[in-house]
Every structure is written in C-alpha cells, then in structure tokens.
Amino acid sequence: MRKIIAANWKMYKTCGEAAQTAAELSTALADGTPHDRLVLVFPPFTAMDVVAAAFAGKENLATGGQNFYPAEQGAFTGEISTAMLHDAGATWVLAGHSERRHVFSESDELVARKTVFALEQGFKVMLCVGEMLHERENGQLSDVLSRQLSTALEHLSDAQRETLAGRLAIAYEPVWAIGTGKVAGPVEVQEAHATLRALLASMLGDAAAELPILYGGSVKPTNASTLVGLDNVDGLLVGGASLEAQSFLQIIGS
Ligand code: 13P
What is the pTM of this model? Predict the structure, then answer.
C-alpha cells in the first residue's frame, strides 16, 4: 500500500506563506520521489487554491479541506461546502479531527454525517479517531476507537462500502499526543493500529486490509522513520512539524 504523508496546517499561514511552503514542497518533490508516497496538505481554506495550484499536475501531491459542513449549500453562516472545496482544488477532507471533536464539540453523529456526505460528493476522507488521556488510563482505548469508527461507518451505503479502497483513510491521533511533544511509543502505536485494523475487519470485511491507517501526534523528523516502519502504520498525519517545508520534507523522506 502506498504510504500517505499528510500535513495539517491547522489555523496557520497566510496565503503568501502557504504559497511559499507549497512551492518549496512542489519543487523538492517535482520528480515524484519518493515514488511510494502520496503527500497531502490540508491548508487553511483561504490558501486552498494557491496550494492546489502549486501542486497542479503532480500525481503524488494533493490538497484537502480541514473541515466542511455536510450539506450542498444553505444558510450555514461560517461554514464551507464540499462544492466550494472542490472548486478550490481539494480532493480530500478531514473528518473527526480531535480539535473539531473537543474544541468545537463535534459529536460522533456529526462526524458520521460528514463522512457519508463527503464520500457521496466524491471526496476522499481521512477519518480521525483517538482517545483522550483519561480514557487510555481507564483501559477504554478499544471501546473509544470502536465507538468512533462504528458510528462513522454504520450509515455508509452498500455501494460506498464496496468502493472504500483509495477513498477512505483512518488517522489514529491519540489526543494526549497532539501538540504536546509526547509521541505515543511504538508499543502503544502498534497496539492501537492493530486494534483499528481488527475493528475495521469486523465492520467492513476484506476491504479493511486495503484501508491505510495513519499515525498522528507529535510526529517529528527524528521519530518519523520509526513510526512509519511499524506494523499497520501506513502513513503519518503531521501538525507542527509540517509547517516548515524542510522539516516536512525530511518526514516525507523518512
Ligand atoms: P502535532 O503534529 O502538532 O502534534 O499535530 C498532530 C495533528 O493534530 C495532526 O492532525
């Protein structure tokens, strides 16, 4: 399976800053190397079109929306639609990122509606899941991952289930490891990814083996190669260390 190395720029970068970083990435990855990696960038909305333009024509580079509202259009002040993201050049979306769940109170049910809607609209979805520290300490890892996955996937149509390969990726991001510098250790990451793979198999059957499971949470150039080499780790979702092109390029090459 082709590894996915994704950058979530969160609420960082003006258009000019985003254009510069995107141009550095595009130039450095111009010859398509490393060939076995798909590089995704989730910029802020205002910079989507400049980043998409910098990546135009590059099969190994793509952009995605960090958020969207699951309706075609309407009176939803402050929200953005998948049609608008498509128009700006995005082909992926994030759903269920922990900052959306915990800072903006998005429920499992809203994450589920977003997942189904984005797939219906032809987007590729990176569905984020992960436990909080107290949930891990109380032995609830498997229960939390199971609840988040099953709620998000239970309303998929049969047609959607049959065509998930290449259209759905899971990102495991333990909330306690995001932006804290506390990376989950190899044992913890392997345990969570194996749990996710087994849960996906129980929910989706054979299709589960083809779905990439990314790790996210304090990924740095210094730990990326260890993380990406672990069983069932099919890529990385990087926040802070993706903001500088050189740092992100080191992670892509690791
Ligand atoms: P950091 O890499 O800054 O911990 O952020 C991880 C993340 O939330 C990516 O979506």
Answer: 0.96
